[in-house]
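Hello,

Following up on my earlier ticket. Below are the two sequence lines again, exactly as submitted.
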Amino acid sequence: MRWGMVIDLKRCIACYGCQLACKAENGTPPGVFFARVLKHEEGQFPTVRQLFLPVLCNHCEEPPCVEVCPTGASSKSEEDGVVSIDPDQCVGCRSCMMACPYSNRYFNDKPQHYFPEGPTPFEQRRTAGHQTDIVMKCNFCKDRVAAGKEPACVANCVTVARTFGDLDDPNSEVSRLIKERGGFPLHPELGTKPSVYYLPA
Amino acid sequence: NDMSDITGQSAKDDWVPTSCALCYGSCSILAHRVDDVVVKIEGNPESVVGKGRLCGKGVSGIMTHYDPNRLTVPLRRTNPKKGLNEDPGWKQISWDEALTEIADVLRRLRADDPRKLTVQRTTTVSASRTPFLAFNAAFGTPNLSAAGGGMHCGNGAHLLSGLMHGSWSIVPDFQYCNYALFFGASKGHAAGHASASNMGMAAEARARGMKMVVVDPMCNFAAAKATEWVPIRVGTDGALALSMCQVMVNELTIYDEPYLQAKTNAPYLIGPNQRYVRDEATGKPMVWDVQFGAARPFSDVKAADMALDGDFEVGGVPCQPAFELLRRHLRKFTPEWAEEITTIPAANIRRLAADFANEAHIGSTIVVDGVTLPYRPVAAIAFRGSQGHMNSVYNFFAISLLNQLVGAADVVGGCLGFNPASNGFEETGRLAYKPHPDADGLMKTGTWMGYHLPYPIAEPRLPEKSGLQDLFVFGLTSPFLDSDDSEDLWQKLELPYRPEVMMNFGANLLMSIANKESVANSLARYKFMFSFDIFLTETSAFADIVLPDCGHLQTLDSRSNYPFIFSLPAGMGEWCWPIRQPVLPPEGEQRRFQDVLLDLADRIGIRADVNAAYNASMNLAAPYRLQGDRQYTYEEICDAELKSNFGPERGLDWFKAHGVLKWPKKPEEVYWRPFADVRVPIYWEFIVPVYEKIKAITEPRGVHVPPEYYEPLPDFLPCLSHQCKAPGFDLYAFYYRDILHTNSFTMENPWLDEAAQLDPLSYTIAINADTGRQKGIADGDWICVENEKGRKVKGRVHLTQAIHPEGLGVAACAGHWGDGMPVAKGKGVFFNDLLELDWEHSSPINLNLDLCARVKVTLEKEGKR
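Thanks for your patience. The regenerated structure is below:
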């Protein structure tokens, strides 16, 4: 099987719920976003279009980040296709960040917290456990998925723009949406074969 | 790296059902509590309020709760001088010391004149306002204000939604609507009542194929997701709506005749004095009965026999049906006229009107859950953008007429009020309410939010309220508590007292009303001010005593989403009653404001009155009524309300365990209009005597109230800012509500602040790219924005194609300068500093402020602040 995600750009309103639900779920430090929302405008007044693009690790089938990792810390699971980083093996060389064409990897250089006064009780519990001097990124909320839940960004999306499922199963909702609605990945020309697809706005 | 927040890691691990309070939507949440730390907030899927999913603000509530800048002890100022540049010199005091002093002040004040107390609160606790209503009523002051709420967000919107839909707000029936016209509203795409639920329903509607046309000076939020964005000159929405009405009525002659006959006052005969022609015997308004060929009381005539057109004579008096007058009145609002005002091409106005009229499918029906109902799948809705002007009444009235003309009001697919009718909770028969008619057949609301009812309009009188709303009876909240000329107005209008003490709850009115100098002057006039806060705000710097309140994860509320007309999603689905309950204990010496108000009531000796006021405010059933001056805890009061509504087995303990109670809505409740014998006013006959009475009070006292604001049919009246002719002042500055922020409050949340810093617009000034270039301004430049009176704000420019060439857009309520909220300090632009606060800039009918400012922009030489 291969976990994948479909994001319906017609539904997304750029509320940042995914970005912040991810932060709450994973306790990521300042400047680190496993899920982000990008905004872009196209056209000239008055025929202008606003484009909202939620992004996260694409969990590529051909992940360039895994290829360049010198220690084997970055790997793709044979079982479900999820690309993850083993923090115990990561030496923080950041080659993977250079290799990722989508800029969805982050370097956690030092212990960080949001208020200068020190880590909040939330951060002591949820952020302080993150190892430093290593690279971090989205792992499709594998602990949630193992517990039978959807990834946090999917479960929380107010516009129900995100669908999570098995791309290898032709009958899954993600496969159906991609087929019926013309789902597309970002930068297919790079040959990375992302597992995150978008439906046109 | 165990990253995800999963369950089962500790023996002390639970999910507590409660309610968000990062905005007034009050979505139902589950707080994940592990070893007494909240590690995650998720939406509660058991509730329809948010439907288990949250916006970015809701999930970020953890960081508001754990902010080290939260107040934890009562503070007293040591510097007697109050001003923008005065340091209060805070000193920690005990609760007993604080409450003894406050109670002494309040006791003396109440004995002197209770009206001298002004109570100000933030809109983010609108659903939790019962304790204030009870305290105020018991104390005896009529002066309750929601800071910027009302005159910014809803003095027009809520008035019209109440008059026309029996509810606080309106929304398209997302489940069935096919063509939604948004006028300066982001409902379903950013802020607003039931915001998260609406986001889900609007997305579903778009996916289903609902067309959405968004009229807005700026293409963000709703406009960004629209089928078509219609850029409009700031503040001219009413002109567009009137012109669309003209096209529908006089060019296309498409309107819903049976609806107008049965559900509006369109057939009521109007005499030359602009008043109803009334039956001498019954006093009822007359209509022309085409079967009888005579005028008869409306209640005696079949709706289908009521004339809508023509000239008649009744008892020698020439008269016309109200609709005939509307038809004639609309003729001057041609699309060519509107093009000049709105900048929208006449051809587009005609196309929009034709699309709206045709998509309404007048005459059609649909079956919903086995019930055959009128089907009008179009809706024109509006909110802050179109109503934030001096002409907000007419703007909203004109937009409302679009729905009325095609019968798309509270029917399937049309414009819905939020839950104006409910059969209540079946097991107890409680909570039932629905719109009902007055003697003239016009609609009175079934329930309301406090303040005065939208209809019948109250009798104007010499003011007892310092905001003058009992004279200007269309106004909900008022600028005259804080305005530059309030003393002048109070003198002229003989206000029999002066405000002396302010009790503030969380409102940062220094930032939320208008320019800070005007508001600071008014705050400094109070002899004593105390403030319940969770942070020290710019406003609490004017307080004598600051009391540390509990936050949304520490407090209790038996009705976090009631009344249902406020933030329960409209349309089919479920009735849902969630509560708010403490997940975490207070930090330091924080105390819940509800408990403090009860404590103060005991110290002042008004507990019996407070109990009586709670009985009234919560409408407690006989067995649960609070007795005498018994010192109930707030838990006991909440328990009484819940048992009173839902039976003895469903008290506070039941709700703490279950979080929400829900039951299905019936089509007859949601689409109540065909089942209620009420009419709504397309012609405001009642405005004529109201104006006469206001004039009789104001004119002899030297206050001129312009009559053009008090006509029975809407007109386009430009804001004062539109009349500015000063050279160089060529942009209309306006603000909008950012999706990441609520009022001035959430900028202190470091997660939301971080996201806002990455957003191209949250903290910048949006100007059309071509306009900017013509002025030599580049993207990212620092500019100074100046209004006609020389008030200035500065900020960084974001050049964009997505804004009208004459517009200048700023996200609201940013630009904190105080030290109490250090994350927020210096972020974004303080738009309200461009707003004047006086009679001249207020609507003479509903006291709405003129929220657009004519400005000129100049490049800051240093390239920075």
